[in-house]
Amino acid sequence: MTRPLVEREYSAIYAIGNDGGPQKIGFSYAPNVRAAALSERGKPRLKVHGFVVVATSDARQIERLAHWMLRDKALGEERFAVTPDEATTAIAKAAERFYDEGARAPGPPRHRHLAPTLPQELLRRLEEWRAQQRPIPNKSEAARMLIEMALDAVEKASQPREKD
Question: What domain of life does the native source organism fall in (predicted)?
Fold first, then answer.
């Protein structure tokens, strides 16, 4: 049985990913267990590239600050198009800024939770679309991408057309 890396009063803000792929920045009591849980069957196991141990009560704020610092390279809620070194540097700087300067990510959380109930046929179509994307997004990110495309298309269609 795997034991948590740190006690429950502490959490680790981690960078998990493959050497050349996107990095996930999150927090957990046991980053190695989290990496194993995130790894997909038949694919190379994800690695914990680095982590910073923080008070569990501060973990969410520090994670948000690290996400905000990398916002220009965001691929989804917690995945970023950065190297393992860039990800680990961002989490170290976020913790340092949080504790030394009292820094916080500006504004409300970027995402609100939405849990729609979808018909099986729509879920099947979502899965087919996801499978065609590279890298393959998770279901939430795929749904978000499709919603954004649909809203952009509606917005574009409703704009007045220029006359020749």
Answer: Bacteria
